[in-house]
Every structure is written in structure tokens, then in C-alpha cells.
Amino acid sequence: MFRLKNIKTLLLTACLGLCSAAMVSCSDDETPALPGHGITEAQWSDINDVSIEGNTLVYEFEAPGRWVATTSEPWCELLTPSGFAGTSSLRVKVAPNEGQYGRSTDINIQVEGYSQPCVLTIRQGEGFLEKGDGLYRDVNEWIYEFMNSNYLWNEHIPDLTLDYSLDYQKFLRSMLDGVASFDDVNHDDGFWLNGQRQAYYTYIESNAPVSRAVGSSNTDSGMLIRASILGASEDDPCGFAVMWVTPGSPADEAGVKRGDFIRKVNNVAVTTTNYQSLGGQVLNGNVTIDLNDVKFENGAAIITPRIPSVLVAKNTYKDPAIYKNSTIITENGKKIGYLLYMGFHMNYDNDLIDVFNQFKAEGIEELIIDLRYNNGGHVLSSTVLGTLVAGSAHADKIYARTVYNATRTAAGEVGEYRIGNPVNPESNNSYAPIANALSSSLNLNRVFVITTITTASASELLINGLRGLGIKVNLIGTSTQGKNVGMEGWQKQIGNYTFVFYPITFYCENANGFRDYADGFKPDVEIDDTNIYPGDFGTTADILSGYAISWASTGNKPSVSKARSSMYDNITVLPSPDEFNEPLTRRLGGSIIMRQ
């Protein structure tokens, strides 16, 4: 009886189902399904993130008819799987994610009488989910491989949950942020200002690089400018003070020089309201500019126009490492060498040796190295310059030592760079310019170095390395950046693109084992020239050069003259957009070791 009754029930249900299907079919023939899904006022997004701990989600929406919601994943439970026309609530209970990876599922809401379902995605994993398009998985896997083995703070890399679908820049940033979440163990990987990390030092570049090295080709006017008012009032003259001109650039060919004052661009006067747009035109090139000479009398600016206006083109040029070298003969007859060095680049090491041969031939007794705009470069090039300063008295002594992560250190890996010794950790066939530099060296017991916050990495390695040898390094300017770490450069061809990866992989120590300069090297004579009008490099017209020349000439540490600096107190430097500072940051920075 029980079986017969159930069979009858099943037959009746089947008949009703067929009738229902027939009715729906007839209804569809009479009333075609409407296009789209019909839902309005939905409170969800296409992709909806939920925390890894799980949560109950409630979304309101308007439905024009009965609706049914479905999903295939059991961890995403639909508490309201259906509803009626009008204002409705979709309630979804998401279970905690105890797995290693993120997960996602689609919820389909089908409204009666409409042809398509409304689809929303639930995604869980605290930001480390499949949020990208997956084009750079191979690159990201390569990044992970090297970070896991070589990053200076690699111990937490295996603990990270990462999204390999992101583009390579975002993937790298998520990895660095992930390591930083462990008590900020990688604090030294980055430039800090006012307690905030401004950027990580670790970076990657491809065929469309995020930075350009010294020696790379640039296509613009070739200068750095600073928007300034020559006084305390907005009614005082406004324009652009030229801070540097790259040798061989269009600006250099047009006769523009450091200390020039630009008051008009394409015959439009520079004002406090248009300086950002006009400054961009000056930097880009193909403009006509009015140049002026500036001098100060009793604190007031005297402006003398240079006529006629000049056309500054936009051409491609090479950015060299050496901007200026000269021999200064002081009133007491002392000969002082001056070097404006903008970046440690191996392509210019032989040129650097030639400069020191010239210094040596001219019999210089003191040396000023201007690193105010030098944010680093190759460790080998830093060793060349260290050898040119230190000389044979320090031959084969340790100039710099690289200290790697705990795993590599335990395996006995360490790098040493020595004065005049071409053998080094990164070149199988040694590096000849280091040896060649020894015969061109000046054998100095002291050197004067001009520094600013831009002075970083391989520049700071020079300061630290020379001090480790017992050479007196006198600093003039402001504190250096404090980059006591370096990176190894690894290159890989993936598809049609070349990627070069520069992770922070070592600390920089000197011969005494000192590396504690993450807060920067503080100057012996502190002068901030930000609000001081620029004078020609390597002359007393430039305030930083002037103090260095005075110290080198007399041997007496100068005191900062308030009378001297007060002449420039009325100069107002206007806020600079990022475009104005781009020439400062586009060079290859760091203490770089290149790996095969």
C-alpha cells in the first residue's frame, strides 16, 4: 500500500509538472521574456569583497517580479533564496576562509519574466585574491622566487597569501606591504619622511621603465627648475630659477645656465596662478623663454634681462654622470678640485678616471665632491671613486662589505669590495677600472662632500667607505637620505618584454662593520639652500660650494653666517608639482649589484 500510494503521488506530481510546463510554454508564446534581468536599485557591486573571517551580507534591491537566487558554493549560504516583487533583501552568509588562497563564487538572481539573471560575485581573502587579469603570472612567480631566496627580510615571505593575477607592480607592492605587516621588519626598505614611508627602495622595471638611469636617453629640454618669488609678496617678481642644465641638452645648447631666472614662457608672464602649466612647458621643451640675470643688494633682488629671448628645443640627449669638474685656485694659492657627480654609472667610470688624471696633473691639494643631486647607482662605480680618493696608501683594504639575509650568510655568502682591487663579487672577470683608478688616485687624507636629502645609497656608501678607511669626510649641506641597504639587479626575458628586478638584498658596511646610518649622515656644516637663490656650481656664488671652498682653503670649519643667508630670506619657493621633481628621481638610484 505504501509503495502504491507513493507511486500515485509521483504520477500526480509528474502530471502537474507537465501541465505547469505546458502553461509556461503557452505563457511564453503569448508573452515573450523581457530583455535583461529587471533588477534596479541594487546595493551590491559586480564584485563584493568579504573578510577572511566571514560575515553575513545583506543587500537591498528592487525586483519587478518573483525571483530566485542560486549559487554553487556551500561556503556561501543563501539565507533568502527567493522573494517577491518590490523591495527585497538578499541575505548571504559567508563562512570563514581557513584555506591558503582566496576564493570566489557567483550568485545568480533570476527574476520571473526576464531573459537573463543578475550576477554578482562574492570574493573572500582580505585583498590577496584573484583581482587582476592574470597577464603577469610568470613575472610574479619569478619575483616571488627571488624574494623568497634573496630579499634581506625573507623569513616571512612564505607566510604571505598573494594574488598572482595582479600586474607585477601591484604584486610586488602587496608582497612588500605583507612583509611590513610583521612588525615593520623591512623598515630599512624605503625612504621615510615625518614617520611615513614615502616609497619602497625595492622596485622592478620593464621595457616601459618607471625610472631612467644616468646614461639613458631623455627627450625634453634638459633642466631642473624651481618656481620662485623674488620677495615676500605675491606682487614681487615670479618665475623659474634654473637649478641645473644637463650638459649637451637643448637647454645647454640654447645657452641656459644655473642661476638664470625665467620670467616669460612663449611671451606669457609667469604668475602664481599659471606657473605649474608654464613650468611643464619649459621642462618639455619647444618653447621660447626670457632669461634674466639675478643678483642681490641689501637683500633685494636686482633683475637684468638678457635680450633677445631664446628658443629651447625638445631633443633626445644623453644624461651624463659628470656635470662639471674644475680646479679652483683660492686667494692663498691653494688648488682645490671640484666634481659635480650626478650618478654612479659604470659607463662613465673611465671618464671619472680621466677627470682625476687632470686633477693630479694640475696638482690639486683638496677635493670637493658635490653629491647634492646624486641618489646612487652601481657599487663598482662607487669603489672606483673611493679608490681615486684613497689611493695606494689604502690599497686592497676593504672599502665596502655586503651582508645578506640569514640564510645566505649562514651559507658563507658575503661580498667585499677593496680599494684598487678589481676582483669583486659581481664580475667573473674582475672590473679593470678599479685597478686603473689606483694609479690615478689623489691619496687624500680628507675630502669635502656636499649633501642633501637626495644624496643616497652609493653616495652614502662613499662617505661610509672612506670613513671606514680613516679618511676624514667633511659634510656640507643637509642630512643624507639614509639608505644603508643595497639591491641586486636580476634580468629576465618573459614573452616580448624584458624585466629587471631590484630587490633590497644586503646591508652596506664599511671596513669597521658600521652600517647604522638609516637616519642619514648629518652634515658638519648644516645649510639648507632650498630658499636660497642658486649660484654657479663650484664657485662662491653657490652657498654650499662657497662654504666647502672656504673650509678646504683655510682648513678651518666655517660657521654658518646669518649675515650671508639673510640676503636671501625674502625668496619664496612655490609648491612644486611632481612634474617639476621628475628630473631628480628619474636616474637609476640605489647601491646596485648586477647579477647575470
List keywords for this structure.
596 residues, alpha+beta, eight-stranded mixed sheet, seven-stranded antiparallel sheet, 13 helices, 33 strands, 24% helix, disordered N terminus
Question: Could you say which overall geometry the principal axes of the C-alpha atoms support?
Answer: globular
Number of helices: 13
Q: What portion of residues belong to β-strands?
A: 25-35%
List how many beta strands DSSP finds: 33
Uncertain regions: pLDDT < 50 for 5+ in a row?
A: 1-28, 208-214, 562-568
Q: Could you tell me how far the N terminus lies from the C terminus, measured between alpha carbons in angstroms? A: 84 Å
Q: Helical content, roughly?
A: 10-25%
Q: What's the mean pLDDT score? A: 88
Tell me the structural class.
Answer: alpha+beta
Biggest sheet statistics: 8 strands, mixed
Radius of gyration: 33 Å
Structure commentary:
It is a single chain. This protein is α+β, with helices and mostly antiparallel strands. The strands form seven sheets. Strands 11, 23, 24, 25, 28, 29, 30 and 33 form an eight-stranded mixed beta sheet that branches. Strands 13, 14, 15, 16, 17, 18 and 32 form a seven-stranded antiparallel beta sheet that branches. Strands 20-21-22-26-27-31 form a six-stranded mixed beta sheet, with helices on both faces. It is globular and about 105 Å long.
